[in-house]
Amino acid sequence: MKRALFSLGLSALTLSACTSGVSSHGGPATSSEAKVAAPPVAAQAAATPIPARDVTTAAGLGVVRGPQIATLQVDARKTALALDSFRTSCPGLVRRTDTSGLTEGSDWLTACDAAKIWTGDAISFFAEYMDAVQVGTGRAFATGYFEPEIAGCRTRQAGCDVPVYKRPSDLIDVDLGLFSDELKGRNIRGKVNGTKFVQYDDRAAIENGSLAGRGLEIAYASDAIEFFFLQIQGSGRLKLPDGNVMRIGYDSQNGRGYTGIGKLMRDRGLITDASMQGIVAFLRANPEEGRKIMQENKSYIFFRELTGAGPLGAMGYPVVGEASIAVDVKFIPLGAPVWLSMDRAEPNGIWIAQDTGGAIKGANRIDTFWGAGDRARQIAGGMAARGTALIFLPKAAVARLGL
């Protein structure tokens, strides 16, 4: 998803962006879970990251060997969830081209074959078939995202009139690498206007009716603010008048840059609490100013109805609460396990990189997925954790890297 999902965290609407949300697992963090954090990897690994000229990928930034996986402190329940999500990711993992420079698809074959028949505990599996590595300094920053549920309807009616649009047919994706080798890996979106390729309509234009009358509405939301936050998450659920639920997921994005309104509002002195709760309180107290502020985030998400398993992450597989994360694929291979040791208990442990996000950029930048419901909303909305990240790679890949 996250091909355009956005997370919340302190940077709540400030830094992140993601795709999905499915069921939440487990209850509140317990005192035993609070003890799972291990010392920062920098203290455990004596090596120093390799100096590099190209710092746009993990391989270029520098990679060092981390501690033995079996020595890492983890929660057994969450580690089992991670192993299940790793199994789910395997079909795509062995076929993907890894832009981080760390692995090749064939590197994962042994681990993926073993995962099919593994019956032991999850941490032993990861220790048997993988080694931990640290990218750059290993310093990590994590936010959170979730699958919201808001009031909506399939057909427009009084009190339910905020359009939920599908992808317009005139929205065009352009692979710039087809025009220049120097632009390989870069893509833009826009539309054709006469003989020119121009930017697509921004949020303000769309909300003011630029797409109206084209039959693009797949549903309607009851509350513009709630729908704005659902767009930031990249997927969600519409609670219909008859009690049924319509699940919608990311279909595309208008190609405009994402602006985190939390930071924008804090920088202007409008709020001191940049959590989701603090932002919403201001928007509701100041509806006209709030509408204009939301429109300063020119990014706009288009949706499709989800009828199968989901929400789906960037790999095309369902993301799972407390198991799936969104990452920057130039620094973490999609499908790879990632271990976090942070300054708060909830995100500690092993996750699987199954998603991406428009604002999830850079080494060890993580967006943790928490599922759906009030607990997921509360944790994701306040998540802003700092600490250390390790990536688990197949032993063959680690050997090829010379670690």
Automatic annotation (TrEMBL):
GO CC terms of this entry: outer membrane
Domain Lytic transglycosylase MltA: 149-304
Entries under Pfam families matching the protein: 3D, MltA
Keyword Manganese: no
The protein's enzyme class: lyase
Entry GO MF terms: hydrolase activity, hydrolyzing O-glycosyl compounds; peptidoglycan lytic transglycosylase activity
Keywords: Cell wall biogenesis/degradation, Lyase, Signal
InterPro entries noted in UniProt: 3D_dom, MltA, MltA_B, RlpA-like_sf
Signal peptide: 1-17
SUPFAM superfamilies the record matches: Barwin-like endoglucanases (SSF50685)
Gene Ontology terms: biological process: cell wall organization; peptidoglycan catabolic process; peptidoglycan turnover
Origin: domain of life: Bacteria
UniProt cross-references to CDD domains, sorted A to Z: mlta_B, mltA_like_LT_A
Record field: catalytic activity: Exolytic cleavage of the (1->4)-beta-glycosidic linkage between N-acetylmuramic acid (MurNAc) and N-acetylglucosamine (GlcNAc) residues in peptidoglycan, from either the reducing or the non-reducing ends of the peptidoglycan chains, with concomitant formation of a 1,6-anhydrobond in the MurNAc residue
EC number per UniProt: 4.2.2.n1
Cell wall biogenesis/degradation recorded as keyword: yes
PANTHER family: MEMBRANE-BOUND LYTIC MUREIN TRANSGLYCOSYLASE A
Designated name of the protein: peptidoglycan lytic exotransglycosylase
Organism: Sphingorhabdus wooponensis
